Amino acid sequence: LKFACYSNDGVDEHMVWLIGLKNIFARQLPNMPKEYIVRLVMDRNHKSVMVIRHNNVVGGITYRPYPSQKFGEIAFCAITADEQVKGYGTRLMNHLKQHARDVDGLTHFLTYADNNAVGYFIKQGFTKEIHLEKDRWQGFIKDYDGGILMECKIHPKLPYTD
Ligand code: ACO
Questions:
Q1: How far, in Å, from the CA of 85 to the mean position of ligand 1?
Q2: ipTM of the predicted structure?
């Protein structure tokens, strides 16, 4: 089992993983227009942390870091259908937090969570109360009425992965 973070950097192997992840999002997030998923996953401002097992993408999280604001916005998060509720989603989020803190220098995440995924995000430390000062995120993340805005503070020191 491997966790890796890639963006559209022109490396063929990375493109293969990103396309695999895009296909998982398209299936697991049926309310999201497929062109929108492709656009963000392939956008060079976005990064994707993925779970890879036996050379296959099992799931991942696509996010956009805003280093100047020290927060990141999670755009999509999914695990392929037959691998859900086995703990991969939790391990994935922990790898994302570690990477976002140590590589991007972020302190918080924001996301518009689907109603049915709120329970998952709460278990990952997200809250519906937004503590981040509005001037740090207003104008950076787009309003989206299909979900609930949630926030997670990344611990400055905690080791999230082993
Ligand atoms: N609602 C409530 N609790 C959940 C949900 C859910 N939808 N999914 C998982 N959990 C719980 C699990 O029961 C588990 O609880 P436990 O620690 O008490 O045992 C905990 O959350 C973590 O479970 P994992 O096995 O680590 O989660 P999983 O690997 O299944 O990944 C995920 C969770 C990503 C939500 C996955 O189920 C999935 O892909 N769902 C369909 C797509 C989806 O809804 N994605 C999120 C949309 S919102 C967005 O993308 C911004």
A1: 6
A2: 0.93
2-153 adopts what CATH topology?
Aminopeptidase (3.40.630)
Give the model confidence (pLDDT) of 16-71 as tens digits. 999 999 999 999 999 999 999 999 999 999 999 999 999 999 999 999 999 999 99
Name every protein residue with a CB atom under 6 angstroms from any ligand 1 atom. 28-29, 74, 76-79, 84-90, 111, 113-114, 116-117, 119-120, 123
Q: Is 110 exposed, middle or buried (0-12, 13-18, 19+ CB in 10 A)?
A: buried
Atom of ligand 1 nearest to the CA of 116: 7
Enumerate the active-site residues.
Answer: 73
In angstroms, the CA 153 to CA 65 distance is: 14
What residue segments make up the domains of the chain, in order of their start? 2-153
